């Protein structure tokens, strides 16, 4: 499945009542045994059929930090940035299929972005007992532009 941006998650990301800094946004790791078939119209994550999350003892969902939104007038861009996500040392024995950024809505999680590409050897990735980090590009998590 290609990387996707979910419709409801995108709307909530930009909504002043639920966006970063107001709502609780977290990063979750999907396990390779998951049979979840993502759809951009999905409005919840944890109650989707086939969804399986990483389940090693040291794993915990990680909240995003250092959200910043910047207008770059010279290039007509708006950049949304967050800090790198650090999961710490996760025990070996499972494989990460995708990384999902979602809003914790009190239980089901509204998905926003799902990254499951193996381009450049990023994913899938075995947990090897070492640190598992999601590094955000220097240009930000998302960049919007217009001509």
Structure notes:
It is a single chain. 5% of the residues lie in helices and 36% in strands. With 147 residues, it is mainly β. The protein has one domain (4-145). It is globular. The chain starts with a strand and ends with a strand. The relative contact order is 0.27.
Ordered list of secondary-structure elements with their pairings:
Elements lengths: L3 E2 L1 H8 L9 E8 L30 E2 L4 E5 L4 E5 L3 E5 L5 E10 L5 E6 L9 E2 L4 E4 L7 E4 L2
Antiparallel strand pairs: 1-8, 2-3, 2-7, 4-5, 5-11, 6-10, 7-8, 7-9
Which oligomerization state do the chains in this entry correspond to? Answer: single chain
Shape: globular
- Assign the structural class, choosing from mainly alpha, mainly beta, alpha/beta, alpha+beta, or little secondary structure: mainly beta
Distance between the termini: 30 Å
Number of strands: 11
Would you list the SSEs in sequence order as H and E? EHEEEEEEEEEE
Describe the main β-sheet briefly.
6 strands, antiparallel
Number of domains: 1
Number of helices: 1
Mean pLDDT: 91
Low-confidence stretches: none
Proportion of β residues? 35-45%
Radius of gyration: 15 Å
- Helix content range: under 10%
